[in-house]
Design brief:
4-stranded antiparallel sheet, mainly beta, 7-stranded mixed sheet, 53% strand
């Protein structure tokens, strides 16, 4: 059974940084794609950053240059390093894994950017 467990969310001041982690069940090489999405209150879920098994990465324009997605294959973990956070980054962040064509989601971790 595919399980994705996020951690690392919290309260941070504008301009600060956070690193989110997503612990995946099984090898990351089993996933066609993995990544991060977010959903702010009253808004639709949106893509933040993803990578495919082929090695390509994709970032939302709003986070380019500030966020970095990475992976630790040995520990089956995907990270999202978030720098220069602003209030518009406040959202629940979800880990996504495309496992044999099916999208699986974690339960999310809340990131609040506020002074």
């Amino acid at each position: 059974q595919v399980q994705l467990v996020e951690s690392g969310g919290g309260l941070v001041q504008p301009g600060g940084s956070l690193r989110l982690s997503c612990a995946a069940s099984g090898s990351l090489f089993s996933y066609h794609a993995m990544g991060w999405y977010r959903q702010a209150s009253g808004k639709q879920r949106e893509l933040v950053a993803t990578f495919t098994s082929g090695g390509s990465t994709n970032y939302a324009d709003s986070v380019k240059g500030r966020f970095t997605i990475s992976r630790d294959n040995a520990n089956n973990t995907v990270y999202l390093q978030m720098n220069s956070l602003n209030t518009e980054d406040t959202a629940v962040y979800y880990c996504m894994g495309n496992y044999y064509g099916i999208h699986y989601w974690g339960k999310g971790t809340l990131v609040t950017v506020s002074s």
